[in-house]
Amino acid sequence: MRIRATVAAVSGALALSAFAVPAAHAAAAPTVTFSNMKVNKAKAIVVGTTKTGVTVTYTLTHAANVSIAPDKLGTGPILYRGSSLTPQAAAFGSDEPGTCKAASTTVANCTATMYFRPGSAYDIADTDAGAWNVGGVSVTSGGTVKWQGGLGTTKLLRAPKLTVNASPEPVKKGRTITVTGALTRASWSTGKYVGYSGQPVKLQFKKKGASAYTTVKTVKTTTGGALKTTVTASVDGTYRYSFAGTTTSPGVSATGDYVDVQ
Fold first, then answer.
1. Distances (CA, A) of 57 to 35, 142, 154, 201
2. What is the arithmetic mean of pLDDT over 186-192?
3. What is the CA radius of gyration of the chain?
4. This prediction's pTM
């Protein structure tokens, strides 16, 4: 969830998303270090129009006299932008602290879940799509906080959808086939899918009996993400549109539409 640069103890458990204790008051930061942090198994986070949760794993190294009990120390991941992680830069964190299990007297393996909620004024917006830096935050039961950046990078991407329809079908050999479709992607601000205009999309064809598609031509989406082009019917086969993706949305291919050429 989107967070402010503060943490607090709530109902006897440390919650990184609570905002009662300013991080600026942290005089003695916990003696812990984050490493091996992996967000969503090192894959991009792709969010559609519904609440999406991803798992974050990390290693926590701590002094032998530091307790990792839930009522003593809370830790979790942070996504941020900028050259360094500061309380002012922190943007996304887990709803609850991570769950840590001791691997030794000074090392623990931890897991946390991050949730992204489209359509909420207090969570992700369309402008949040793109690259993010990864960091960690820890807080003691006394409210002292440590921020650690430089733990890697991840991408937060708007989920796309792509459709195709080839007609008429069946069609006589030599006649014109019109291939239409639409490229849309999630708007996190509205919680709906909207047209993605001005994007190059490949029209691809797979001959009946073939195992792979070949590119026929490239078409650009127009208003509302609409796609339309024509080809000449030659042999039976399947048409589809394929989008390579951008820095804010991943690639996607439409489910193919088979055409019987008579």
1. 10, 25, 13, 36
2. 94
3. 24
4. 0.88
